[in-house]
Amino acid sequence: MLKNKIYKYLSTEILKNFITILLTFTAIAWTVRAVNFLDLMIEDGYSAAIYFEYSLLNISTIVTRFIPLSFLLSLIISIAKFERQQELLILWSSGLNKIKIVNIFFLISILITLFQIILSLFINPYSLNKSRSLLRETNITQINSILKTNDFSDSFKGVTFYIDKKEKNGDLINIFIKDDNGSINTIVNEVGKNNSSTIIAKRGVTTNNKLILFDGFVQSLNKKKEIQNINFVKTELSLSNFSTRTIKQPKIQETSTYDLVKCYKSKIIENLQNCSYQNKKKEVVENLSRRMGMPLYIPLISIIASFMLIYQKEEKYNYLKKYIIFIFAFIVLLFAEIVLKFTGFSSMNFVLYFATPLFLFVVLYALLIKNMTLENKI
Question: What crossing angle do the helices spanning 124-137 and 48-56 adopt, rounded to 10°?
Fold first, then answer.
């Protein structure tokens, strides 16, 4: 019963440190990323609600990236704390087996590995795809924030705006619009069928997803290369066809794991033509490796950190061992990130990436048990 309470205490302390460190890293990284997302409002004209929802949907990917490092730090900090407070010495004096403590660390790492796998395989692709759909399905509502005075704005694909002045009430003065791909639909039927059109107006206002222009003219170039001029007192331009330069098509990391696996198999076995990533095999393999292979390095981290439990006769080695072990474990994580970029180059690289943490785990675990067994005989 007493041992169970000790195991529960050790597990609770490690998990508390892990959650605290992970939330701290996530909060800092999310804040930085959220600042970068401000372009959605400033440059692309999306509402504040869309901006915040889009930012929140990206949190899970940030959490996933920091899980291995957070787990490493939590183990190092927890073990160092136990040693500093003489808690480990009391445990060893009471006859508690070090190998059982190592197994506790390993069980915790398995739980965290499963947590990261669930995030990587299911939650992250869904949330990222949801955030991309949010931009794709939402109409631009703040065109006034995009348009700058005395500056040519090309935030929209195929459309260039120039505004001479903005009034406090939101009116736009002296407007120039160059439409090269027919994005603007007007009440003048001829314009919608033209290859290129230029609109100049003295004044304009935006309301209900429309740009209303006053006192101007439309100069259009049709498919026969004929120039047509149409004067107007008032006309309305629909903004529904406006498309910003924000990428709206799902990226590979936003694609479900099932679709990626199916896509990968189609190129290897059936060579299906409906795969969205026919020419991106390396990226597909790299993404699958990150989702399924990176979590395998977490149990390895638990074994590396467990070497802190081995007592050294030289006091200076006991002082330095936490730094040495941390550096070694950090290098392993860095190695995993670097090698990840090469998994798509060949099947051998792909297999080695998955085999490396398993091989190192077996070797280091055997070495750890050997050292602890020798330590008990001394």
Answer: 160
Name the DSSP letter for residue 183. Answer: -
> Residue 70's CB: how many other CB atoms inside 10 A?
22
Q: Please say whether the dihedral angle defined by the alpha carbons of residues 306, 310, 311 and 313, taken in this order, is positive or negative.
A: negative
Distance in angstroms between the alpha carbons of the first and the last residue of the chain? 29
| Main-chain dihedrals φ then ψ at residue 309, nearest 5 degrees | -75, -15
Is the predicted pLDDT of residue 14 greater than 80, yes or no? yes
What pLDDT shows up at residue 222? 65
Strands of the sheet with 227-238, listed across from one edge? 152-156, 159-166, 172-179, 196-207, 210-221, 227-238, 185-186
Residue 163 has a CB neighbour count (10 Å cut-off) of 20
Which pLDDT does position 243 carry in this prediction? 64
Which band of pLDDT confidence, cut at 50, 70 and 90, is reported for residue 174? Answer: confident
* Residue ranges of domains in the chain: 2-138+249-377, 146-238
Please give the full DSSP string across 270-310, using - where no structure is assigned.
I--TT-TTTT-HHHHHHHHHHHHTGGGHHHHHHHHHHGGGS
Find the mean pLDDT for residues 129-136.
81
Q: Give just the sign of the alpha carbon dihedral 248, 252, 253, 255.
A: positive
pTM: 0.77
Amino acid at 141: T
In 85-195, which residue ranges form alpha helices assigned H by DSSP? 87-93, 98-118, 124-137, 143-146, 189-192
| 276 alpha-carbon distance from chain centroid | 20
Instruction: Please give the Cα distance from 89 to 92 (Å, whole number).
Output: 5
- SS3 label, residue 95: coil
pLDDT of 141 reads: 55
Q: Are the C-beta atoms of 239 and 210 separated by less than 8 Å?
A: yes
